[in-house]
Amino acid sequence: MYQTLLTSLDASIFTITINRPDKLNALNKDVMNDLDKVIDEVKSNPEIKGVIITGAGQKAFVAGADITEFLGLSSDEGKALAKRGQDIFFKIENCSKPVIAAVNGFALGGGCELAMACHFRIAAENAKFGQPEVNLGLIPGYGGTQRLVHLIGKGRALELLMTGNMIDAQTALQYGLVNHVTSQEELLNKAKSILEVITSKAPLAIAHCITAANAAYSNNGYQKELEAFGRSFETEDMNEGTAAFLEKRKPVFLGK
């Protein structure tokens, strides 16, 4: 179904593996088109409750964009390329189902931007993060200048953006760029164990958490929270959750 992705669904957790290990899983047009389509599948398939995005092989999550596709582009063509990337990454960021990046190896340039578009990140011990676009006379174009500032703060973000330096997994953990660091062997198991907890909760409440948190840096974040909180009272899951709490039993959420 996909030219550049491997997908598997196990116990409601959908794993998406970018499968270009010979190119260190670099993002090209085919990968971006497949990512666009696969998020539509995530949204439309009710069997999928949570998502892991990772890279094939042990060397790279995504080592960057395929620079050969940048050659000869005009300013307008460059903007169109970036707009396409931003639109796809917004789809990931705004997905109503939780999306975790399981970062194995290099997450550089567009790969770091992809990881940041996910709801949060888990890193293997060999992970390396960076935005080295300045080495090419470029800047990140898929949202990296914005999400990096939001995640680690302006000072640290600007240092990474302007030096093009990489940071290792432990530094990324210290900066708040990743939530957990684990061995490469346990990376996917760690991501799955967290998703198992998340997917046991009320799906509509999870979706509302994503929507409200994504609005935190806008001028209407508190309003988004109010609206989502109010809508929660219209759901069967809220009635079930509160009843189960009072009855001292485990809730059975149906996503309604």
Low-confidence parts lasting 5 or more residues at pLDDT below 50?
Answer: none
Structural shape: globular
- CATH topology of the largest domain, what is it called? 2-enoyl-CoA Hydratase, Chain A, domain 1
Encode the helix/strand succession as letters: EEHEEHEEHEEHHEHEHHHH
- The overall pLDDT, averaged over residues, is 95
CATH class of the largest domain: Alpha Beta
**Biggest β-sheet strands, sense, barrel:** 6 strands, mixed
DSSP summary: helix tally: 10
Q: Mind telling me the C-alpha Rg?
A: 19 Å
Helix-strand makeup class: alpha/beta
Give an overview of the whole structure.
With 256 residues, this protein is an alpha/beta fold. The protein folds into 2 domains: 5-198, 2-enoyl-CoA Hydratase, Chain A, domain 1; 203-246, no CATH class. Helix content is 45%, strand content 17%. The strands form 2 sheets. It has a 6-stranded mixed beta sheet with strand order 1-2-3-5-7-10, sandwiched between helices. A 4-stranded mixed beta sheet has the order 4-6-8-9. Strand 2 (13-18), helix 1 (29-44) and strand 3 (50-55) form a beta-alpha-beta unit. Helix 4 packs across helix 5 (154-163) and helix 8 packs antiparallel against helix 9 (221-232). It is globular and about 60 Å long. It starts with a strand and ends in a 10-residue tail after the last helix. The model has no long low-confidence stretch (mean pLDDT 95).
Show the helix and strand layout.
Layout: E1 5-10, E2 13-18, H1 29-44, E3 50-55, E4 60-62, H2 75-93, E5 99-103, E6 106-108, H3 110-117, E7 120-124, E8 128-130, H4 144-152, H5 154-163, E9 166-168, H6 169-175, E10 180-182, H7 187-198, H8 203-214, H9 221-232, H10 236-246
Parallel strand pairs: 2-3, 3-5, 4-6, 5-7, 6-8, 7-10
Antiparallel strand pairs: 1-2, 8-9
Helix pairs in contact: 1-2, 3-4, 4-5, 8-9
